[in-house]
Design goal:
Elements: E1 3-8, E2 14-18, H1 21-30, E3 34-37, H2 50-56, H3 58-68, E4 72-78, H4 85-93, E5 96-97, E6 102-117, E7 120-127, E8 130-134, E9 139-143, E10 150-156, E11 165-166
Antiparallel strand pairs: 1-2, 1-7, 3-8, 4-10, 5-11, 6-7, 6-8, 6-9, 6-10
């Protein structure tokens, strides 16, 4: 189930929460974050190729590419047996920004995004069917858990793909990890 928890940034105290999609989308919209539900136009096998996955969501992908000027799209998948899962998790856990939107659509599995805006931190547990778009230059971090399991469509305006600028702020350590969320 998708879940939103809004915390105070200074004490990591829960201020509000929601688990109904429309309410989550509305609260995130107030913070400038796009949150949508997508449905595939065709059934997908668990081992579907990147092209098959993108084709199943082509209409939604094309709309975002046109609306935001994205130049490329790909699919990333990570399972609990991946040999570099701990290092990859650590790479995303520190607060960072990007010069472009960070867009993830969860084809399968789940992941936890934290978005830091002013005196609030928005924790969003995304699951299959959720699209989240974190605006450019927005402080955030991502926790995929100790045993990650997800497949995501990613959209990019930067041909280099995922490029992070770390803030140096250790705020992420004050908030619940994926397993405790």
């Amino acid at each position: 189930m998708s879940v939103l928890k809004i915390f105070s940034a200074d004490q990591a105290q829960t201020l509000a929460s929601a688990d109904e999609h429309a309410r989550i989308a509305s609260r995130l919209h107030e913070a400038g974050v796009l949150f949508e539900r997508w449905q595939a136009t065709q059934p997908l096998a668990q081992d579907a190729s990147q092209e098959e996955v993108i084709d199943a969501y082509r209409q939604s992908v094309e709309r975002l590419m046109q609306d935001y000027g994205f130049q490329s799209v790909d699919v990333i998948a990570l399972g609990p047996e991946h040999p570099d899962r701990a290092a990859l998790r650590q790479k995303f856990l520190d607060e960072h920004t990007h010069s472009e939107f960070e867009v993830r659509f969860f084809v399968d599995g789940k992941g936890l995004f934290y978005i830091h805006q002013g005196d609030k931190v928005y924790g969003v547990m995304c699951e299959q069917g959720d699209l989240i778009s974190v605006p450019a230059n927005t402080r955030h971090w991502f926790d995929m858990g100790e045993a990650p399991s997800f497949k995501c469509i990613r959209l990019f305006t930067n041909p280099e793909g995922w490029v992070a600028q770390y803030t140096g702020d250790k705020i992420a350590r004050n908030f619940p990890a994926f397993e405790q969320f």
